[in-house]
Amino acid sequence: MAPSFMHDRAARLHEEGQELSSSGNDDEALRRYHQALVLEPNRPTTLYNIGLIRKYRGEWRESFDYNLRSYQLRPDDEATRWNLAIASTALRDWETARRIWKECGFDLSGESGPILMNFGMAPVRLNPNGEGEVVWGTRIDPVRTVLRNIPLPESGFRYQDIVLNDGAPVGSRIDAGREYDVFNVLELFESSHWSTYRAVIQATTPDTLLALEELAKTFGVGYEDWTSNIRILCRACSEGTPHEHTEQNIEWIPQRRIGLSAKEKIQIEQLLQTWTDQQAGHVKEVTLELQASEANA
Known about the structure:
Oligomer: single chain
Largest sheet: 5 strands, mixed, barrel
Strand order of the largest sheet: 1-2-3-4-5
Number of helices: 10
CATH topology of the largest domain: Serine Threonine Protein Phosphatase 5, Tetratricopeptide repeat
Shape: elongated
CATH class of the largest domain: Mainly Alpha
Strand content: 15-25%
CATH architecture of the largest domain: Alpha Horseshoe
Order of helices and strands: HHHHHHEEEEEEHEHHEHE
């Protein structure tokens, strides 16, 4: 078979793979990509696209292998470098991750092991193919974020979880007048030691609720007012730039649904009892919603 014919046929198979992937048929897309590689094994774009599909499936060894082959053929391609670094991070291959992140222009502390820095605040989208809840966290490396909000329990994520997030932003959020990129979470990287509780309380005034928030800090308990902090957005708005939200001129709702997070249940009990004693608040219901895994308890 003539080399030019093989090249043209591989290019056509690659295009068919792209069309199939765009329509959501990744299995057939992978079939076309692998057929293209039989004809032309060193097609960097085909290798990259296979690595990309494997990334979104969480098949990290395969994603690493194909991105590495693509990187070796075109080391200056930014998208390939990022996906190779993400796969390396997922595999805890810190030597490769550090080397590639440095090539991407990051100035990293330390010489080996996990990257533990402060890259600032970032909102991340949990379960992007599902409900897509967006919470805030602290980026400790280019693609790992520690959750600082208490996610809704149905998300399966907890306060202080470390998540692996993608490198390409999808939408943004505004906080204190500053716009931040939103990154989709790829998977849970490290589970936290914190359990999630839901409390239904009666807070007669905003000051009564503020007292609970301040007490939570004293008791070492994570706190989230789910009644006021949760906004339901359509997918288009969630992946865009929603305007900054405030509660000005909104009628006060005494009954609140509060998310609390703690390592020990007694912290929750003591917090709510102290708040009730001091503020004459009323606790209607407290439930354990998401317990820390036994491995981390």
